[in-house]
Design goal:
It is a single chain. With 307 residues, the chain is an alpha+beta fold. The protein folds into two domains: 4-117, 3-Layer(aba) Sandwich (Rossmann fold); 154-293, Hnrnp arginine n-methyltransferase1 (Distorted Sandwich), CATH 2.70.160.11. The protein has helices at 4-12, 18-25, 28-41, 57-63, 76-87, 128-143, 280-286, and strands spanning 47-51, 68-73, 95-99, 113-115, 149-151, 154-164, 167-168, 171-172, 177-179, 188-190, 195-201, 209-217, 222-238, 243-248, 251-262, 267-275, 288-293. The protein is elongated, with a radius of gyration of 21 Å.
């Protein structure tokens, strides 16, 4: 029998199919960013732990310099896949693939770097924040300080109102969409500048929930029917150059239950709440948007705008 967390893990995406991991291998932005960050963070002779190793590729990047890499994976299919892939590559023998729950596993010795790429837009679905916070508490209890370096080091999350086309060959379907960050989509119109709603620093204690209310100045008239969620991962802070190595997730666009019609200069108020690792529908259910002030007549009563 699966326990409650295992059932939720299956539903929320912890046991994602092998072919999805293969797609991540083909994501050049992801691969290059992580390889560069790991090369910077891992010093020769280091001990490294990866929580949620998938195919083992990030552990393999670390093995180029590290003496030992512990690669923890919960999905038994991926454990077999990772062991097979690592055996085909030089330095693969430095990586020990361990079938274990990242919520419970601790390495047999202190480590210098912890890699955790359980990353979804908005820190939804996957359990990165919860896993790292749990790890920090258990690690300090067993080994004391200092904590290892975490990779990613931080995450910046933002939200932006959109006018989004939902016409699919005449079929109207307001669905969740994931968009590449380097592609221009003609059916997507940015209605205001994005606003940061949370910054996670994995070197500090972090909350498990996000409760945000913010305002936007509308830059063009139209229908606001969706919100774009942006997640920028600070993989490593390069102090010597005062710069960072980043990886930007695909944009996630969530349709609003009730579209809002706005004019240029209006003030839009947006609010939402969700927990780290929660489902996308839980965020959708809490997402609210309304016109707070009109550009021509200010202020007006705080009532939602309807079609």
């Amino acid at each position: 029998m699966l326990n409650e967390r295992e059932i939720e893990s299956c539903y929320l995406g912890q046991f994602i199919p092998v072919h999805y991991h293969h797609n991540m291998l083909m994501d050049q932005n992801r691969m290059h960013g992580f390889k560069s960050a790991i090369d910077y963070a891992v010093q020769p002779g280091a001990k490294v732990l990866e929580l949620g190793g998938g195919t083992g590729v990030l552990s393999w990047f670390a093995a180029a310099k590290a003496d030992k890499v512990y690669c923890v994976e919960f999905n038994p299919d991926m454990v077999k896949e990772a062991r097979k892939m690592l055996a085909l590559n030089p330095n693969g023998h430095k990586v020990e693939v361990i079938h274990a729950d990242a919520f419970e596993y601790l390495p047999p010795e202190p480590v210098d770097v912890v890699i955790c790429e359980m990353i979804h837009v908005g820190m939804l679905r996957e359990k990165q924040v919860e896993v790292i916070e749990s790890f920090k508490r258990r690690y300090l209890q067993r080994f004391g300080g200092p904590l290892p370096v975490f990779l990613p080091e931080a995450v910046i999350m933002a939200v932006q109102p959109l006018q989004q086309e939902y016409d699919f060959e005449g079929f109207y379907a307001p669905i969740v969409q994931f968009q590449e960050t380097t592609v221009i989509y003609p059916g997507t119109v940015e209605m205001a500048q994005p606003a940061v709603y949370s910054i996670i620093d994995f070197n500090l204690p972090n909350e498990m929930s996000y409760n945000w209310e913010g305002k936007f100045v509308i830059e063009r008239s139209g229908q606001i029917n969706a919100m774009r969620f942006v997640t920028k991962n600070i993989l490593a802070v390069v102090k010597e150059r005062s710069t960072t190595i980043d990886w930007l997730n695909h944009y996630m666009t969530l349709p609003l239950a009730t579209p809002v019609y706005a004019s240029q200069g209006d003030i839009l108020q947006v609010s939402f709440q969700y927990r780290a690792g929660g489902s996308i529908p839980s965020l959708q259910a809490a997402l609210r948007a309304e016109i707070l002030y009109e550009a021509a007549v200010q202020p007006r009563q705080l009532t939602p705008a309807y079609a």
